[in-house]
Amino acid sequence: MTPSADTAPGSPDHESCDLLASTRRSLLRSVAASQAEGRAPALVAAVLRDGRVVWSGVRGTDVDGRAPGEEDQYRIGSITKTFTAVLVMRLRDEGLVGLADPLEKYVPDTGVGDVTIRQLLGHTAGLAAETPGQWWERTPGTLRPDLADVLAADGKPDGARPHEAGRIFHYSNPGYTLLGALVEAVRGMPWAEAVRREITEPLGLTRTSAQPEAPYAEGWAVHPWADVLIPEPVEDLGLMAPAGQLWSTAGDLCRFGAFLLHGDDRVLCADSVREMRVPAAPLEAGNWSGTYGLGVQVIRAGGRELVGHGGSLPGYVAALWVDPAAGVAAAALANATSGPATGALAAELAITVAEAEPGIPEPWRPLPEGQVDQTLLELTGAWYWGTLAHGLRLTGDGGLSLGKLDGSAGRTSRFRARPDGTWVGLDGYYAGETLRVVRRPDGTVSHLDVASFVFTRQAYDPGAPVPGGVDARGWRGIG
Prior knowledge:
2 domains, 12 helices, hydrolase activity
């Protein structure tokens, strides 16, 4: 192998002025250290901000001496699960499946069909972590031609379910095989074709595919005690493909990260993407550092909350993390079975950019003339739940935001209008709950009913139907 190459000439690291030179050097230093300390033949990483890739870096060489390129594909392993989850959420949004539906409704005769689609997405279905028989990642998918071959364990019918469904988080690769089977049953097309038509083509992920497309990095295992290596076999995973089949590049993964940040109506709306990021599994007691949503991992790193997924298959490790608060995504890929900590690296890259160069807020602008709804404008201002002062604000997207006026933590939520004149909570305590504007016979506003709580214009307004009534003597002192 020839000496390691630096970042490839012509890469965004050389051309882009979007990041400060000091930030770019920090990013390259992190990539170089990860490649050297992890002893990866090649490692590539990229960072996205404001919807586009603003930096990428490459270290190492292929065994033939060729410097790895930014467009080289690597296998991304379990990051594939997030793509599969997006396909399932699309089915939900189209009304073709319900997340609370049992699998049996769409994929019968599996023996575990009473588990729900939501449980499979969040790894709470209680299924086994792996398939029976030989190591599925290193053997041909043809060894597991049917779902029974993925789920059965040592001939015991209960072997595929070591845990009670819904009780705990237990990562399950076969669970995502079942979700892939669900997609195929409902869509009437192969899983890989659904990924191409419904995700990669609409998002312009031209270098993401189910089979490797040249140029791609060869996968290697590096000896744990010597600087030598052997090639890893590349297997088609067959039925297990929805759990780990895909190949991609750092740039494509970052562009997929932009979708995980903001959604894309061609694929999945922003609300559904946010729903995927909500923890689906019970959190462990104490200060948790990681949990799982619907097809995405959620972690805390460097004081920030990141969403994404890690992945590995023999010969490859990969990670994609996005920081929703900062609008930053970072991906890291390497062609080694173990060694480089791509998960930690991708998180470090995202945090570096988020903290070294915080985003510039968009300028405030008043609403255009003609877009001001006077009936909504009269609702804004102070409202009281009991004696607690809250502020109701009209947001730029035509929604409402309710929160405590002192800025302290409390029951803060955003609301979106429904066609029937009510409002539905989008997040916080009132997520999914209903806000009603209650008017008097003359049309003036009496109070707000928020999930049965009465909010009035003054604390315990005697003219409003406050539950329990208001003492007729009013406010008074002692004595």
